[in-house]
């Protein structure tokens, strides 16, 4: 079986990640911040080490400012619902995932905020274009790091610079591309960054988070037991505990800490391999006359998007599946991106590779597609 | 090391649970509802089987109505923030965990709802007492199944009956006691039930949920990608997908399905062992003259709560830790329960056992405590 759906989740993890997860489960197995016995204190130490690792990886000048969540969707909701205030105007890109669009559109429908979807030319030429979309109420730009549909990089340091000149807060959804070290909070003017562990960060499922330069001060999304200050009737004003009510998924957090270490050691090799595979698949798809390939731009992660002329994307997915190849079709939880590409009615086929894939797999995929009747 | 903090999390799981988790991770590894290729469909089937297993275990007349969350705190927040409307009056028990108290108190502070904390006699004699606390606005009773501090059962079928007579909606927080098959939604008149996997249900961390007799219709807590109906700008009105935005922690869900099967097969043995250990520890603690034992009632789970006269709970925890015993002291994320017991200032020591503990461990603990200077 050939697994080409790494943008949904990386099915295979480095062995050290499985080992770290099971080490936590078998040897520690307790919850941080709950018991003051030695093994509880050790859990808290491991949580602290994990916070430092994540923030260093994302270039956060604050070494420990991360709220761990279950996935990036929770982190995005925590941020959007907590940060935005009545009357705010928000800029989002024409490639945002529904995880960003939907909470923002709901606030808009409830009459709380307004928002504008930035077209592609603003993302490409923010210096000349961004100004046109800013109103006196504009407070936030929420931009995806990379499109989950086309793989192109959407956020750029240049865009961040223009936001900073205008005192806008910058939020980046790093669900795609988070593991490529493409987003650096300090260098790229990112105030808040959401990530998920189970995609290109190679952690086991069940952990994501929200990194921020400053501690959060807005209301938490979820209230409950915080381990400390249990005597308050509401969540105490302490960071990050007030934002992590309930038991944390500590084995997954520890697997994330370990997977980031793995990435740090192997980033160059991973990047080279993924670039090679991506160029090969783009080149192959480009040579097929019946294929519409979307946005084969250079600044990208290893996800590509196409359609076969006259064939529905679900039929292509089904045909590839019969030939042992897993790819995703239809609408990819990113309606704005489909509107941008003009693929709302047809859907699209997404192939998302990672370094564990091989040139042979890519060639086999291209052969199978070429032979499609 | 003796682990007596099972009410925080069950450190040790049955081997079949670790195996099920790793089976999912290694052999499946995909996300349900995302890819239509065979392995994606298989993931969806395993999710469906897990929904059925959870609902059967909790006696839900609806076979598949469960929203999977990261833990019970998220499930409780989803319910409380979604279900309650402006002007509602809520009844909660004097033993509620902060996971219930804090979201409710926040709604109260925001001027949206009012609530009353029911004293113990209402829980014990709902037939004669409940009526006194009901107003024309009372819409919900939110009651914990068992106290996380004292281990006593708080919710009862008799209480549920009285609620039903008055058309109140009943919500039960089964974070404690959920794995003992003590709550049966149909039999006990429970409309909504929140649970967490990692405590006495013996799943790996990262899964909880909200079971309901009817599909949810209120707004979700978290919005984002739902796998299906990706074309909508807001979460589509579909259940349960609209309430499970983002990638589910499917390996943990599968570990929960397996741990419930383990419980179903071994419930009688587990129950007998836990009762034996609990009686032994209650009997031992009762015989110590310097120990204040709280609520050693019969209707209980295997958690007991006490203080040593004249010694702070943190000193006792520390002393026990030096002797290789893990218990929790202080305030246990349940300020109402401490107010009920009169232990707000002192905190309290909680010993929470499960079937993997032994009589020898209990006896050693009692010996160590007896010798405390």
Automatic annotation (TrEMBL), chains A, B:
Its EC number is 2.8.1.7. This is cysteine desulfurase. Residues 2-365 form the Aminotransferase class V domain. GO terms for molecular function: transaminase activity. It is an enzyme of class 2 (transferase). Residues 253-280 form a coiled coil. The keyword Transport does not apply. It catalyses: (sulfur carrier)-H + L-cysteine = (sulfur carrier)-SH + L-alanine.
